[in-house]
Amino acid sequence: MNRKFFFIPLLLLIAFFTVGTVAAQAPVTAVVIAPEGPFTVGDPVELQLAVTHPAGYHVIPPELPEAWGDFIVKSQSPATTATLEDGKEMTMFVIDTRLFTPGEFSTPPLTVSVTDGSGQLSEVTAAPVPVTLTSVLVDGDSELRDIKPQAEL
Q1: How does DSSP assign 40-106, residue by residue?
Q2: What is the CA radius of gyration of the chain?
Q3: From its phi and psi, is residue 140 left (phi > 0), alpha (psi between -120 and 50) or beta?
Q4: How large a percentage of the chain has pLDDT more than 70?
Q5: How far is 30 from 109, CA to CA, in rounded Å?
Q6: Which residues contact 2 (CB under 8 A, 6 or more apart)?
Q7: Does residue 13 carry a pLDDT above 90?
Q8: Omega of the bond prior to 38 within 30 degrees of 0, cis?
Q9: Separation CA 89–CA 80 (nearest Å)
Q10: How confident is the model at residue 71 (pLDDT cuts 50, 70, 90)?
Q11: Residue range 102-149, pLDDT digits in tens
Q12: 3-state class (DSSP) for residue 140
């Protein structure tokens, strides 16, 4: 009977290290990529969410609220998936956002859900990225101007 109790922990250790090895070979990463500026108030800031994952995994699109931190979300594109040279896949989303105040901003952390081929659900979080908005006003420009009339056709 002592032999049975010896083999159970041994089998559990082997299973643990086997799962750990598989998990180490199949990491899922997410990153938000902001385009180069300069941006001014109201300009579209198209953020790209790139999720790298093993083949056969499925990325569930994040459901962002209209007011996402300091950003206003106008739309999100459907996912596009491409196969990388190492056999992994990259799923990309474009998030069309706007900012309406000049200054330094940062996207909130973005958590994405990913399912593997067997239906196991996991989450990965993309770190915040900085975005800078500049003012359309030039320093020292305080002169008031008339509103321009409508253009005539």
Answers
A1: ETT--EEEEEEEEE-TT-EEEPP---SEETTEEEEEEPPPEEEE-TTS-EEEEEEEEEE--S-EEEE
A2: 24
A3: left
A4: 81
A5: 10
A6: none
A7: no
A8: yes
A9: 10
A10: very high
A11: 999 999 999 999 998 888 999 999 999 999 998 877 777 777 778 888
A12: coil
| Edge-to-edge order in the sheet of strand 58-60 | 58-60, 110-115, 121-126
Mean pLDDT of 84-88: 92
Please give the biggest Cα pair distance in the chain: 96
One-letter identity of residue 65 = P
Tokens linked to 7:
């083999």
For tokens 């090895």, name the residue. Answer: 21
Cα 146 to Cα 19, 102, 143, 150: the distances in Å are: 70, 23, 10, 12
Q: How far is CA 85 from CA 69, 73, 89, 93, in A?
A: 35, 33, 9, 20
Taking phi first (over 0 means left), then psi (-120 to 50 degrees means alpha), and beta for anything else, what does residue 103 get?
left
d(CA 83, CA 81): 7
Q: What type of residue is 133? A: L
Q: Which residue in 34, 38, 37, 8 sits closest to 110, CA to CA?
A: 34
pTM across the whole model:
0.71
- Supply angle C-alpha 33, 36, 41, rounded to 5: 105
